[in-house]
Design goal:
Helix content: 10-25%
Structural class: alpha+beta
Strand content: 25-35%
Strand order of the largest sheet: 7-6-10-4-3-13-16-15
Largest sheet: 8 strands, mixed
Shape: globular
Length: 559
């Protein structure tokens, strides 16, 4: 190496060190991003050259000291020229060894991050499969307020038995097992082998293949997932469980329903979980077949409120309707069904089968799932009940930040990803103005993108194309800006004049108005100019904006 090259290398190394230890202001975003955010949220060079094909996860859980020990065999495909490999594992867990084909590999942790960079063998070939094994141990982060604060939950049930669970969406699966911790990195299938004390049972995703009792008082529960799965969905659920089963004759044949609950809650569970079949019937009608027939549908009681763990949905709503007994919509309809069953199970379609490439588009997961609550209400109690529920959810919308986060930074946007996206979708249904078309669009999304990684733009484009409606401005305003559009109007000489006020240039969205005679019509305001309506109106009371349109209104002074 020449003197110049050495000097350049030193300068590059110094600059890199500064970057790794300093926060970065994301361009044009106002978001202060750390290197940890970038390494977690982006497809780095150390991630981009390989694809996960299969995980074989093996973990021993020790409740007495809240520790875990294990290894993960990662089968991967070489897609591009190999570089160092990024493996993610969060403090305070530590990697003890990394091997491939019996060879121990060198690795180091990137500064101020959870990313380990692994030196790979020189003879890796493009389009070939290899398996790397990561051995680790330690005491994982304890979730202080699961499922919102991620990590391990170490509790006891009311009878003093260990009651353990994991919940880590947002924080990342690497909080308890080593993996390629990016939302786009789904294995085609996965083996999950969890060893726990023999006095409790472990329930994870997929189907139970085997249990192995060991001489040391521990038992390994081996589960297998035969479909692609998000890494944040992989779950440990360990407790004094009993299991009861049922079947549902669905669109793709017989679907196995399996319920794992604490023994003393068995009778309550048998009553409350009767809601599963009508839910499944409703969602299969509106969204198409349940996406994971091969892996079954499970509800698993947990010491936290709930999570959409694929084929092992976490349930902790205390066997009552509503959200811990409350109606989030304030409409009354939310007390007629169990929020956690309906919401978390809807994620099997929206989030688990269809997964966004970047958490910045998380509104696709949460918005469609929240909207599914209105769909279920409609299935059970009629269309107007579903609409009342949707409108009731508006009280929880803040409109302070956009619902789209910053890409590549593990930033999922504002809390309005739920209720605001819910009401946007409900409003788009009104614009489409044909329920058969709208239902076919929702079914079509599931069929077109089943088991795929998508962008929000792909979903938006599909809705626009299939509806025949120009909805670009609608998505742009509601998804990329904090505020919602304002309908400005005035009446002069019995004529209605109107326009939109919005952040999007040349904003254009149809608006449904109801006249005093009960009929309705669409008007087509634009933000470019005031427009004159053909309607003859004497005062503002002669028309009403359809209440299912989530907009602001402003009656301005006569011009």
């Amino acid at each position: 190496m020449t003197y110049f090259s050495k000097t350049l290398a030193i300068l590059v190394g110094l600059f890199t060190s500064i970057l790794l230890s300093s926060p970065i202001l994301a361009q044009d975003s106002g978001v202060l991003a750390t290197t940890k955010d970038s390494l977690r949220g982006s497809i780095t060079a150390e991630r981009g050259w390989w694809d996960v094909v299969f995980y074989d996860l093996n973990v021993t859980v020790q409740p007495e000291d809240s520790s875990i020990t294990g290894y993960n065999n990662i089968t991967y495909r070489v897609d591009k020229e190999p570089k160092r490999m990024q493996i993610d594992l969060q403090d305070p867990l530590n990697i003890d060894q990394i091997t491939q084909n019996g060879q121990s590999l060198d690795y180091n942790r990137a500064k101020n991050s959870y990313a380990y960079m692994v030196d790979m063998p020189d003879n890796l070939k493009k389009d070939s499969l290899y398996t790397i094994s990561v051995y680790y141990q330690g005491k994982p982060k304890v979730a202080e307020n699961a499922p919102w604060d991620g990590g391990f939950v170490w509790k006891q049930d009311s009878l003093g038995n260990p009651f353990i669970a994991t919940a880590n969406q947002g924080l990342g699966a690497s909080v308890w097992w080593p993996n390629k911790d990016h939302q786009s990195a789904e294995p085609d299938s996965m083996s999950i082998n969890i060893t726990v004390p023999s006095n409790i049972k472990n329930v994870s995703n997929g189907r139970l293949r085997d249990t192995t009792q060991h001489n040391n008082g521990m038992t390994t529960w081996s589960w297998f997932v035969s479909n692609p799965i998000n890494n944040y969905n992989i779950a440990v659920n360990a407790g004094n469980y009993v299991n009861f089963k049922d079947t549902y004759e669905g669109k793709n044949g017989k679907l196995d329903l399996s319920y794992w609950v604490l023994e003393h809650n068995l009778e309550k569970a048998k009553e409350q979980f009767q809601q599963v079949k009508p839910m499944m019937q409703c969602f299969e009608d509106w969204f198409g077949p349940y996406p994971f027939y091969a892996d079954s549908f499970k509800l698993v009681e947990t010491p936290h409120l709930g999570m959409e763990h694929q084929s092992a949905v976490a349930y902790g709503n205390e066997y009552q309707n509503g959200y811990l007994g409350k109606d989030l919509s304030g409409s009354g309809w939310g007390l007629k069904w169990d929020f956690i069953i309906i919401h978390e199970a809807a994620h099997e379609w929206w989030g688990n089968s269809i997964t966004t490439n970047d958490v910045a588009d998380m509104w696709v997961h949460e918005g469609f799932t929240s909207y599914s609550e209105s769909i279920y209400t409609e299935c059970q109690f009629g269309k107007e009940a579903g609409a009342e529920y949707a409108r009731g959810m508006r009280d929880g919308i803040q409109n302070k930040e956009p619902i789209t986060g910053e890409y590549g930074l593990n930033n999922e946007g504002s809390g309005d990803i739920y209720n605001k996206a819910h009401n946007m979708l409900h409003m788009i249904r009104q614009i489409v103005d044909n329920d058969s078309t709208w239902k076919n669009i929702l079914r079509g999304i599931q069929k077109e993108f089943r088991h795929q990684i998508v962008t929000a733009d792909q979903i938006e484009r599909y809705i626009i194309e299939q509806s025949g409606e120009d909805l670009d401005d609608v998505f742009d305003q509601y998804v990329h800006y904090a505020d919602i559009p304002t309908f400005q109007y005035y009446i002069k000489n019995d004529v209605l004049f109107y326009r939109w006020k919005a952040n999007v240039d040349h904003f254009d969205m149809p608006l449904k108005v109801t006249l005093t005679n009960g009929s309705y019509t669409f008007i087509y305001p634009s933000s470019d100019r005031w427009q004159r309506s053909e309607l003859s109106l004497k005062n503002a009371g002669d028309f009403k904006i359809d209440k299912d349109f989530y907009v602001k209104t402003d009656s301005v002074s006569t011009r």
